[in-house]
Design a protein that fits this description.
877 residues, alpha+beta, five-stranded mixed beta sheet, 15 helices, 16% helix
């Protein structure tokens, strides 16, 4: 295990103050911002500087931090053991000992120690031969009143110490046990047998955990879960299941196995061998050790959720550096006792999802606590600075090229600490200045190649983008800095549209025209029509697979929550222009792994746009806004709301509801889907109609009815009926409130000087309540700018994007959902427009006549704020 020296033994509790945000926090040309010339550059110094400069100044909340560290791993294990004994009243009957030279033995010993209510202590080689070698250990045994010892490991890795120490403390030979096997795998099986019958994990039955004997990070990540069962932690070779493990699974009638690590850590053959014993398998496989630890923490929290002791305990999170997982090698029993999951800190930073959760929890949870394993050298105090939510803003950075004869654009990313990363591998030339040979002798731009279409993957690691000079779609890995073009082995992707990330960030689905004779249609206005086909791209392998083979335009819709299925719609309108043509489109659901239809063969055709569906969170149903009318015809200018099972069966028309006289062919939106609640038990939808004005014409006033469908009973209830005498205001629904009792929505009018109104519509009464106003920002006395809010996942805060013109850039602001002051977060002018304006100066006519178009967007996901700014320049001749 790691022998990195750390500070002397300590257990410090400190408070981290949270502060309001200041407008000048992230200026690029001022203090507090740091730029790196490339992603490969060493940014540690500038990051540390940015962290130091953003330390809080005014306290608005505290996060308690408990830190365990020692001068070596053995002292650290005693610190952790003492904390466990203290939590149990100051004494312990048992102690478990394992060699500090064998992390595998120590990992396997964790659930055994937990089953005995005992702490786990690491022993150095030959370190206990005399009383004076480790006086801290001897004092720990004396002060805690320990009388029984279980030693895990054979005498080669942990020599007999009974005569020299344990007997000297008055322990009897019968109270000293040793458990071991011929190797670490055998020892883990022997320890599992000593634990006895494993516990049940929910309704999955008797459960054990299996990790690779080559991955200490995975074994440490599942340590709290293993101790909480206790679930024995078995170790396996990466490529084969040891026969002794297979025998154990069979003899103990194991019904369920948690497999820690991806296929690179534990091969598929191991999982197959486990399944042959009759056990089901849950694999915890993240992209890296931090992601795997997150999955283990989620499973731990599910297991402990029904424990009354955990329900009443403070909110705690364990944290260990991902570079040194051994720091928490003995922490499993302590964390399990404290109902605390374990996460990895990534390069001295909190994982984004954890940072986001803690930022949102801190103001409302005074007992929030971080339990850190490691000293300040590996997890600095600034790691737990929660004054800002996590932020990743990607934008196009423009500067003169190296020759000074044009412009160079590249993607850059700034985080909440003001640290900027540039990604040179995305760079492209916007203008090259070459003499055109025209009689006026002027130079004109020969190349225009702007970067656009920036879109974050849900996990905030990857960016997709395009070049509007027709050079395809690209993926940027912001972690490694690598960028590559999406390609297919057989076909040239002549266009890529509707590029859409899967929820798990592993795949991209898109439509593209390809040079395949089978996709050719008739000639349209002298142009040969090619129908677009559907493709899926795997990010890890960088491979692209064709999903559809037909003479239809296939369009991309919505992914299922589990990233297995994607909706698409097709039509045969042979138009050489955009495939997004308003014609009847039949909905299809495709399994991306196989390319097969996910719809039951008995399903009826559903006419709907591919994006006009809303999946239930559990993936069992979809709400559909469809143009299919009750008489089976397709409505061109009106839609109805439908409920459909995920296999396409049990189609149910929801609108019009209790409105037999409602016209079906109104030229207005008609029915629509609002949102599912978080439990997938309720679906909110709406229906609107206008008054008939004669001669078949319709117009205001508009009557809007809001409904809730209870999926369990099938009953539909009316939430509210309202009439609008005109075309204003408009409503933008965020969805159900966290408690599922009301719908949150934004009300607005076309008057920019009026504030946006965040309201809630209560389901039981239909009453509408004002939550807060979102005021406009006045650039001057006559020009107000309204922002667009985006709610955090817990609906407690919002980020608001105020977007001005090029000359009057605004930015991103924060606010609580309940009425409070707006707080500036970032200034777009400093990071997006300043450099571009500086670059586009003193160009000769006719190039001086130019227009500027740029836009910024943001969303608040479970990993924080993901934002993009696209800045376009169009030349007017």
């Amino acid at each position: 295990m790691s022998r990195t020296p750390v500070m002397s033994a300590q257990r410090a509790v400190w408070s981290v103050a949270l502060v309001g945000l200041v407008a000048s926090l992230l200026p690029i040309s001022g203090v507090g911002a740091a730029e790196g010339n490339s992603v490969a550059a060493d940014d540690s110094a500038v990051e540390a500087q940015a962290q130091a400069e953003s330390m809080p100044e005014d306290s608005v909340g505290d996060v308690e931090v408990v830190r365990y560290a020692g001068s070596d791993p053995y002292e650290l294990s005693i610190e952790v053991a003492q904390a466990l004994v203290d939590a149990e009243g100051g004494t312990s009957e048992w102690v478990a000992l394992a060699s500090g030279e064998s992390w595998a033995d120590a990992a396997a010993a964790g659930p055994l120690a937990a089953s005995l209510g005992a702490p786990l202590v690491l022993v150095p080689p030959g370190g206990l031969q005399t009383f004076t070698a480790r006086p801290d250990f001897v004092e720990f045994l004396r002060s805690t009143g320990i009388r029984r010892v279980v030693i895990v490991g054979n005498s080669d890795v942990l020599p007999n110490h009974e005569p020299s120490v344990l007997f000297g403390l008055g322990m009897l030979p019968r109270n000293i046990q040793r458990i071991h096997g011929g190797d670490p795998v055998g020892t883990s099986v022997a320890v599992a047998s000593r634990i006895g019958a494993p516990a049940d994990l929910a309704d999955l039955g008797r459960t054990v955990i299996i990790a690779s004997d080559q991955s200490v990070a995975d074994a440490v990540a599942v340590g709290p879960l293993a101790a909480a069962g206790p679930f024995p932690l078995l170790l396996t070779a990466p490529d084969a299941l040891d026969p002794s493990i297979a025998t154990f699974l069979t003899e103990q009638e194991i019904a369920h196995v948690v497999l820690a690590g991806g296929t690179g850590a534990i091969a598929p053959a191991v999982q197959e061998a486990i399944e042959t014993t009759g056990a089901t398998v849950t694999r915890l496989a993240g992209r890296n050790r931090s992601a795997t630890a997150r999955l283990a923490a989620e499973l731990f929290e599910q297991h402990t959720a029904d424990d009354p002791a955990c329900a009443d305990s403070p909110i705690r999170i364990g944290l260990v550096p991902d570079q040194y997982p051994e720091q928490a090698l003995t922490a499993g029993p302590l964390l399990a006792q404290a109902c605390t999951a374990l996460r990895y800190a990534e390069s001295g930073r909190l994982p984004a999802d954890l940072h986001n959760a803690l930022y949102l929890l801190a103001p409302r949870s005074p007992d929030l606590q971080l339990v850190i394993f490691g000293d300040r050298a590996v997890i600095p105090d600034t790691t737990v600075n929660l004054s800002l939510p996590p932020l990743r803003l990607a934008y196009v950075h423009v500067a003169p090229n190296e020759a000074g004869r044009g412009l160079r654009a590249q993607i850059s990313v700034i985080n909440e600490q003001g640290v900027i990363q540039h990604f040179p591998r995305t760079a492209t030339s916007i203008l090259s200045w070459e003499v055109s040979g025209l009689t006026d002798g002027r130079s004109y731009p020969q190349l225009f190649c702007w970067l656009a279409g920036l879109d974050w993957s849900p996990d905030g690691r990857f960016l997709t983008y395009g070049r509007d000079c027709g050079s395809g779609a690209f993926v940027l890995d912001t972690l490694s800095g690598e960028s590559y073009r999406i390609e297919h082995d057989e076909y040239e992707l002549m266009s890529v549209i509707d590029l859409t990330w899967s929820p798990d960030s592993t795949q991209l689905v898109f439509a593209s025209v390809i040079d395949d004779p089978a996709t050719e249609g008739r000639t349209f206005d002298s142009d040969l029509t090619h129908f677009s086909e559907l493709f899926v791209h795997d990010v890890a392998s960088r491979s692209t697979k064709r999903l559809t083979y037909n003479t239809d335009h296939d369009l991309v819709g919505r992914w299922s929550p589990d990233s297995r299925i994607v909706s698409t719609a097709s039509h045969r309108q042979q138009n050489p222009g955009s495939p997004h043509y308003r014609v009847p489109q039949s909905l299809e659901l495709i399994e991306v792994a196989t390319g097969r239809s996910a719809l039951n063969s008995s399903s009826h055709t559903i006419f709907a746009r591919p994006w006009a569906i809303v999946w239930s969170p559990d993936g069992t149903h979809i709400g559909v806004r469809s143009g299919l009318l009750p008489d089976g015809e397709f409505g061109w200018w009106t839609d109805q709301a439908y409920l459909v099972k995920a296999d396409g069966t049990d189609q149910r028309r929801l609108t019009p509801h209790e409105c037999d006289e409602c016209p079906y062919y109104n030229q207005h939106p008609g029915g629509g889907i609002i949102a599912w609640d978080s439990t997938s038990s309720k679906l909110a939808f709406r229906f609107s109609e206008f008054e008939e004005k004669g001669s078949g014409m319709l117009g205001p006033p508009e009557t809007i009815r809001y409904y809730s469908l209870d999926l369990t009973s099938g009953m539909i209830s009316t939430i509210r009926t309202t009439t609008i005498d005109g075309y204003e205001p408009w409503f933008n629904f965020f969805g159900w409130s966290q408690d599922g009792k009301s719908l949150l929505f934004l009300e607005s009018t076309s008057q920019a000087s009026k504030p946006l109104l965040l309201k809630r519509m209560i389901e039981d009464s239909g009453q509408v309540e004002l939550v807060r106003e979102i005021p406009p920002i006045w650039l001057n006395e006559t020009q107000p700018v309204r922002g667009m809010p985006h709610l955090s996942q817990d609906q407690s805060q919002m980020v608001i994007v105020y977007q001005g013109r090029h000359e009057e850039d605004l930015g991103m602001w924060l606010a609580d959902v309940e009425p409070s002051m707006l707080r500036p977060l970032i200034d777009y002018g400093d990071i997006v427009s300043h450099n571009e304006r500086g670059a586009f100066v003193d160009f000769p006519d006719p190039l001086a006549d130019r227009t500027w178009n740029w836009s910024c967007a943001a969303d608040w996901s479970d990993i924080g704020i993901l934002s993009t700014c696209e800045y376009r320049h169009r030349w007017a001749f």
